[in-house]
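To whoever is on call:

I kicked off a structure prediction for a single chain this morning and the downstream step that reads the tokens threw a length-mismatch warning. I double-checked the sequence; it's 334 residues and nothing unusual in it as far as I can see. Pasting both halves so you can look.
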Amino acid sequence: MFYIIYGDDNYRCQAALNDIKAGLGSPDMVSVNTTLLDGRKLTTRALSDVCNVVPFMAPSRLIVVEGLLKRFQSGEKQTRANGGSGDDGNQNLKEWQGLSDFIKGMPASTVLVMFEPDLDTRSANPLVKALSPVADKVMQLSEMKGRELIAWIKDYALTNGARVSPAAVALLADYIGGDLWSLSGEMNKLMTYCQDREISETDVRAITSFAREENIFALVDAVLEGRIKEAQLMLHRMLLYGTAPQQILSMIERQLTIILRVKELQGLPQPEIRERLGLHPRYPLDKTFKQARIFTMARLRKAFHALLDTDVAIKTGKYEDDLALDLLVIELCK
């Protein structure tokens, strides 16, 4: 059997691989008879040698190759990935395209999976095109959007015995998008929080970290533009939804720190800045760029001093938590 699993939906790619493993029998024996290969340095000879090994006390042997398809992305990526000139890369590609003949005669006990859970499907991949005709199944799993994503959220809730309102489903899809790892994690938190009752839009706003992050962006925007009443309204709403004062303070500090780091890294491409700061793929970096353009270094220094004063005031009991945050918002809006 030969499978190709690829796309930019890491969650569903992993789930598809797990389904294949589940169909091969006892998890213990599948684990013993599974070989993971690094496709970035793999040769066709090494792969064929591994595929010809008979399984140990089991009907099947699973071979998972990760990183091979990325070597053959179109254009400049392909040349760099192959570590040489375009001619070297083309020669290497022809060698791997010839793997289709080996796959046709591969031992019946071998289950080979080309696995690429982080592959940009917008770029043409000649190896996928060459090997697809001999594959028993090709699964291209891209990030879900729109109705497909809405259906997935409803199905996830139903599978786990939970009920979720249409408004809550729409808000989750809007806040988190197609990142199913984060989405499933937030759903699990909501199901634990709500127990047997239906998950509502209010629950999503109160519990999900993505909702709180969106609120922080809106709060910082209001602060930047000096909209004191609106900023205070957002602050009180977050407190009403159950966000702890110390957590709000920490979130404001985190956003201001990211703004500071973005100002320092200006001039670099957004993907590189995201990687250097270790930001989540769904983090709206473009909004932070906009905020960084407005915040001067002098204002950032003043803001960090105000944060420190607020933290001390709360911890020493000088002010009640809510009052200290109100005074902070007023100070930041100046």
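Update from on-call: the warning came from a stale cache, not from the record. Cleared it. Sanity check on the structure: The first strand starts at residue 2 and ends at 6.
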